[in-house]
Amino acid sequence: MIVVLKKEATEAEIRHIEQKAAALGLKSHISRGEERTVIGFIGPEDKLQMIPLEIFPGVEQVIPVLAPYRLVSREFRPQDSLVRIKEGVVAGGKKLLIIAGPCSIEGPEMLLSIARRVKVAGATVLRGGAFKPRTSPYDFQGLGEEGLRILKSVGDEAGMATVTEVMDPRDVALVARYADMFQIGARNMQNFTLLKEVGQARKPVLLKRGPCATVKEWLMSAEYILSQGNFDVVLCERGIRTFETETRNTLDINAVPAVKMRSHLPVIIDPSHGTGRWGLVTPIARAGVAAGADGLAIEVHEAPEEAVSDGAQSLLPRKFEAMMADIRRVALAVNREV
Ligand code: PEP
Ligand code: MN
Asked: Whole-model pTM?
């Protein structure tokens, strides 16, 4: 249930509603917009339905929420959310969020050299995995903490924000020490213990869609994070598993405007994992931006044939630069900026 307050509702009236809800075992989340202030409740909703909230002072309207998610919904927050990743790096505004870097962190020199190239081309967030979710236990698993150290020092040196995957709830504090943003990988989208853990951390989260997850399940996973008090979530469509074998995954472009209608959270796309083929990355990136995506996550490597993971879908820096020139034009056409 969501309560929309009157414009002139006072702090005392808001507190009164919060206290009533708390007495029934519900937690209140307040969203203060320019147009209106809204309270969303988490907890046993049936108890709340027993009190006539619509006659409480300051209340304009009580909206039952039919969707199973609340805090991520547009009903709760009609305006687009802005997620601040680092000073001057924001997702969800007019400017697109461009994340770029190798699939895995392989060493300091390679990361710094990629970082410098992608930054000049317009990326503001450096990506790179230190903990890698590999299908085979015999494949490269990532450099672990050493990789995190490299990411932080290169991010600082290049003047970029950083994002990296956290796979284990026990590593959340460790990753938080080094990175500006957590990535929850596709395979962990429904690792609810991990979602709760990053929900309690005070760092933004890039939540990738599971390869077999519906949009509703994806939004429910985001709800897990918001319900713990962390509203800084950016959603990432990275392709789903379909019957098609031509590409690694099928990037669900439909999901971009569909999610943006249902949720206030920023949505970006990852055409690298979404296609699995470097030659398809730029066209799908263009399509995603045209469809309203708030940004891109792109894998870049200077020697893709030698990459320890995902070389086939990685762009050379010069291809990334060319893609960015294309994206600038598409962005302009849909009233966005890079
Ligand atoms: C990645 O970003 O390198 C990655 C493993 O992505 P996903 O979880 O989408 O497969
Ligand atoms: Mn990858």
From this structure: 0.92
Residue 78 lies in a domain: no
Q: Which domain holds residue 42?
A: 2-63
Compute the distance from residue 279 Cα to the ligand 1 centre, in Å: 18
Q: Are 93 and 83 in contact (CB under 8 A)?
A: no
Please give the DSSP secondary-structure letter assigned to residue 240: B
- 167 and 34, same structural domain? no
Residue 313 domain-assigned?
A: yes
How many domains does the chain contain in total? 2
Looking at the CA of 134, name the nearest ligand: 1
Tell whether ligand 1 has an atom less than 6 A from the beta carbon of residue 33: no
185 Cβ below 6 A of ligand 1: yes
The H or E element containing residue 227 is helix 215-227
Tell me the per-residue pLDDT of 195-232, one tens digit each, with 9 for 90 and over: 999 999 999 999 999 999 999 999 999 999 999 999 99
Domain membership flag for residue 290 = yes
> Same domain for 307 and 266?
yes
User: Does ligand 1 come within 6 angstroms of the Cβ of 238?
Assistant: yes
Of 31, 63, 95, which closes a domain? 63
Going from the C-alpha of 108 to that of each of 166, 308, 329, the distances in angstroms are 20, 15, 33
pLDDT digits (tens, 9 = 90+) for 244-285: 999 999 999 999 999 999 999 999 999 999 999 999 999 999
Same domain, residue pair 160 and 43: no
How far, CA to CA in Å, does 179 sit from each of 1, 127, 221, 321? 35, 10, 22, 25
> Does 338 map to a domain?
no
In this structure, are 57 and 91 located in the same domain?
no
CA 48 and chain centroid, separation: 31
Q: What is the pLDDT of residues 51-105, one digit of tens each?
A: 899 999 999 999 887 778 999 999 899 999 999 999 999 999 999 999 999 999 9
